[in-house]
Design brief:
Elements lengths: L11 H6 L1 H14 L6 H14 L3 E5 L2 H12 L6 E4 L6 H8 L3 E4 L11 H10 L1 E3 L5 E3 L6 E4 L11 H11 L2 E5 L7 E4 L4 E4 L6 E5 L13 E5 L2 H11 L3 E3 L2 E2 L10 H34 L13 E2 L5 E4 L3 H10 L29 H7 L2 E4 L7 H31 L1
Parallel strand pairs: 2-3, 2-6, 6-7, 7-10
Antiparallel strand pairs: 1-11, 4-5, 8-9, 8-14, 10-11, 12-13, 15-16
Helix pairs in contact: 2-9, 3-9, 4-5, 4-8, 6-7, 9-12, 10-12
């Protein structure tokens, strides 16, 4: 079956559908000259806080700054250690470093690719100690360990009950990296109810980069929290450290959100639940089609306590490069999220991690591939993706047999 073209991501269609609404936002900004901050930003903050079931939202200019500001406002100080996972985009660790802290890693769960609570427990019990004052100290760096960042990767939340329990036991701040998880949900067995990403940790960071489930038409981000004082600190940090104009309590940053982006996000937020529902339908259809095709690859795992929003649909193949090449030949776009774990990146050579330090992350990084996933993906397009994957798998399984037969006859 020949496929003309199936993009990895379609950012054109939803914007064309909303063109009139988005154009009105631009007109309002031009006519009022309200370019930065103001009612548009405040209205979006209120709406997004409600969507996340959190009490506060502070909009900023990127997801990276959202995470950095959240760490600083929560009390992470220069010289601290913040624990996270190596299977994430570098923005997670950039935010840690830019807050003055040092990233240290624990491995991920082999099925969800999110932080493995047992690996976190192992780190806290065996790779940390207490100093004379009772502070938790990393044996690796001899620095105080003060926070943990679980990353809700690919649109699915980490196992927050277990992580929060450990954080409470060891006195750690929990900041959710929810940059890929707008609207994802988690059922807390401890509290017997569903939570939305951004409402469980001390604070959470969101990115509204254009390709996200909720994306701006440029850069944007936000911090959500139930802590009013923390939200106030983030608002101060994002605006040069001023509580009111020209009165600077601390040194801050220029991390404000443009009104235009806030207005665009306000429009698109009205459609986010629908788009997330469509993503869940597309993921279920992929699962059904791959099951019918004999599971030529490993499909995503969704625990019973998770309602993922499938920012990405990530599968695994032992011949990832071959599969991507075969799909490309059929005009099918793919991606890798992420090919090189952070502990093996040249930027973090100074951390002195070695290959083999995090085997689950390293094995998955060599096999994962992201297939086309977006709300307007059609059933026919999905069938073509699965068919191309199946045919590649069949060729892979027959070629060794043909080669062996040729060797016997030679």
């Amino acid at each position: 079956m020949s496929v003309s073209s199936i993009p990895f991501l379609d950012l054109v269609t939803p914007h064309l559908e909303l063109e009139q609404e988005l154009t009105k936002v631009f007109q309002q900004v031009v006519r009022t000259a309200g370019f930065i901050g103001g009612p548009m930003v405040e209205n979006f903050e209120k709406s997004f806080a409600a969507f996340c079931q959190s009490k506060q939202c502070a909009a900023v200019n990127s997801g990276t700054d959202a995470l950095r500001f959240a760490l600083t406002a929560a009390g992470v100080r220069s010289g601290d250690v913040v624990v996270t996972v190596p299977n994430t985009f570098i923005a997670t660790t950039e935010a840690i470093s830019q807050a003055g802290a040092l990233p240290e890693f624990v491995d991920v769960d082999a099925r969800t690719y999110n932080m493995d609570p047992e690996k976190l427990r192992e780190y806290l019990e065996h790779k940390c100690t207490r100093d004379s004052s009772g502070r938790l100290i990393s044996r690796r760096s001899s620095r105080p360990v003060t926070a943990v960042i679980p990353v809700h990767l690919y649109g699915q939340m980490a196992d927050m009950d277990a992580i929060l329990e450990l954080a409470d036991e060891y006195g750690l701040i929990v900041i959710e990296d929810a940059c890929q998880a707008h609207g994802a949900q988690y059922f807390s067995r401890k509290q017997d109810r569903w939570f939305t990403a951004g409402a469980m940790g001390r604070a959470a960071a969101f990115s509204f980069y254009p390709g996200k489930n909720l994306g701006a038409c440029g850069e944007a981000g936000a911090v959500t929290t139930n802590d009013e004082a923390l939200a106030a600190k983030v608002r101060m940090i994002r605006d040069h450290g001023q509580a009111k104009k020209y009165y600077h309590d601390v040194e801050g940053y220029n991390g404000r959100l443009d009104s235009l982006q806030a207005g665009i996000l306000q429009v698109k937020l009205q459609y986010l639940a629908q788009w997330n529902g469509q993503r869940r339908e597309r993921a279920a259809e992929y699962n059904r089609l791959f099951e019918a095709a004999g599971r030529p690859i490993t499909t995503p795992f969704e625990p019973s306590w998770s309602r993922a929003v499938h920012h990405l649909y990530v599968v695994r193949s032992e011949n990832r490069d071959g599969l991507m090449a075969a799909l490309k030949d059929q005009g099918i776009g793919t991606g890798i999220h992420y090919p090189i774990p952070l502990h093996l990146q040249e930027a973090y050579h100074f951390l002195n991690y070695t290959r083999g330090a995090f085997p689950v992350t390293e094995k998955s990084a060599a096999e994962i591939v992201s297939l086309p996933m977006f709300p307007h993906l059609t059933a026919a397009q999905q069938a073509a993706v699965v068919d191309a994957t199946r045919r590649f798998s069949e060729r892979e399984s027959t070629e060794p047999a043909v080669l062996a037969a040729g060797q016997r006859n030679s």
